[in-house]
Write the structure tokens for this entry.
Amino acid sequence: MEKKNNWKAWLYLAPVIILMAVFTFYPLINTIGISFLADYDYTTGTSSGFTFDNFAFVLGLKGVESGGTVSYLTDVIQYAIPNTFIIVIVTVPLSIIIALLIAVGLNSIRWVKSVLQTIFFMPYVTNAIAVGMVFAVIFESTGLWNYVFGTMGTDWINNGASSANAMFALCVYIVWHALPYKILIFLSGLQNIDKQYYQAAQLDAAGKFKTLMNVTVPLLSPQILYIMITSFIGSFKEYSSVVGLIGKPGTSGDVGYRNMYTIVYYIYDSIAVNQTHYASAAALMLFIVILIFTLIQFKVSKTRVHY
Amino acid sequence: MEIRLVNLTKVFPGNPKKNIPDTRAVDNLDIVIPDGKLIGLLGPSGCGKSTTLYMIAGLLEPTSGEIWFGDEDVTRLSPEKRGIGLVFQNYALYPHMTVYKNIAFPLTNLLVEDPVVDEKGNKILAFYRKHVKALPTEIPTHLKGEKVKNPFKNGREEILKFDCSHIAGDPILDDKGEQLYVTRKRHLTKIEMDKLIRETAKLVQIEQYLTRKPNQLSGGQQQRVAIARALVKRPRVLLLDEPLSNLDARLRLQTREEIKRLQRDTGITTIFVTHDQEEAMSISDEIVVMKLGVEQQRDHPQEVYNDPKNMFVAQFLGTPPINMFNGHVKKGVLTIGDDVIREDLPKDLDEQDVYVGIRPEGFLVPADKKDYVFNINVDMIETMGRDISLVGSHKESIKPSFKAILDADTKVNVGPLAVGVKPNKCFVFLKDTEERVI
């Protein structure tokens, strides 16, 4: 019986499978292949053979010789990797904690709840580039941020602002933009928690903070794990926020200045200059890093996530 | 501790825009629950019994009325200050904590008061605070030059600096005129907690499951854990919300005996809510029958069964339920159809139609007195081992059929049958108010 009707199931799945095979699976496998090819040219599809040098080049271990001088790529090891890790380590925990607090707050009020929910969800439906442009205006040296906090004249993202300043502005922007989706997930998770757990905690004289840490967070742990994994992956792939906020890979007008590089920014840049083999190597390394992080999280979650 | 509910009312507001009227869940309830007793709140769903329980717990605020624990008015007191243990219907055990941690959780928040002692082990007498506040002008000579802190705030070390005789002022006296000692609030230590947890676990017989998570336990075990969690902080009142509804039939019998035993052993005033009359009758010292937020009757279970105040109570208690018939009263004589059932009704009762209720066990086969014979039709005989049940019909019966429980030795056949009626199992209710006449 089952075998007989199998072809029907495949037929229904065919459109998705074909599209995914062409636009997802093939590029995925091809990326792995290209990352091991020397001097791959995607316009002609030619290369000069198998090599590991692409990885070494991206990590700045091996230089490229042209006209008698050997030049090393330093942008990735000096800027892209540290920046990406800073973004991950700062924005992921911060946005999760803030989103959790806002979700708990929203869940505990009744009045104007739906209005506030809508307001908090607005950034999610707003384009990242558009939001980035607004933040760029806010963080101008004569912008709103400086006006409100009395730091007039400080350069955050332009005119050769320091990496720390630019990173601060970038993190504020990323956290703000990441909140709505997380709040939404947490809020739906909170609404599934039986009210009696809170009544029980109240009867046992547990304070607000204790209830949050001992009841809410553990019972929300499946959602927290989900959000953690997806935001770790998302943060490792951060790129559009830099484009949106700063518009270029560095804080100064100098074309070669790339102090706000991220790994994915480098990947896109490399593709643009027909260095697909370097881009592929970087992408593969990023993939492995994300994989390791995700595995660690699953491992940790086994003891921390309940159910 | 005695619990008194005075004119307790809870109204859930409706929505006038959507034409939803207000709901009076509990209406002017007056109950006194004696100290150390097990009381069952009994009623059909929606009768306000759970609402009453939650109001006693403090999770719902009464619209009006008062709740007294002993001579303390707790109506406006928040739940955590009332000292109650509540067992929820679905237990509400924290799924992420082991049984041990679940039981420990209430203890981690508990504050106990300890007398503060000096180095010789003597308790330190308490004085009125105003005198302590005035200390800087009365600093004992040996403390001159030292920074003086409020000894009541800073615990033992600060108090020890003071020789109490130097503190002028009136000592604090308790109700009996005894002098009180300085006390300090503190959390329980791990060892104290462990002792309490193990004691309580032993009481409900779950010592061997302490390391498990709730989802690794059966329903009955989960419930014991829930009871242990409620009991561990030694509450003044134990409240149980439908404690047996999530258990299977056999476990239910066993658990209800256990609840009774626990209650007797601990002597904690216990209130439990149920819609199952058998459950309520079997373990309660007293039951309160409720209907639409109004108390119908409160008494010992057997009294309520034998002497129901009105038709609702009579119909609600008893399995199989009481059989109702249309009857007629004339000059003190009760008839159903053409049969005279009783002749001892009050003579001053006007001639009128009434409802007659006869308990299933109130039939006599064969009829013992020739005068009071009730002619019924037997449709079916169900054998149940210990006794047999007749499914009969009668044209005046309110339901299409009724049931009579008889001794298994009784010989009966399907068809017309003349039965006797035991007067003490036969109740008469007025048609309009449904109040009982006799």
Summary: The two ends of chain A are 36 Å apart (CA to CA).
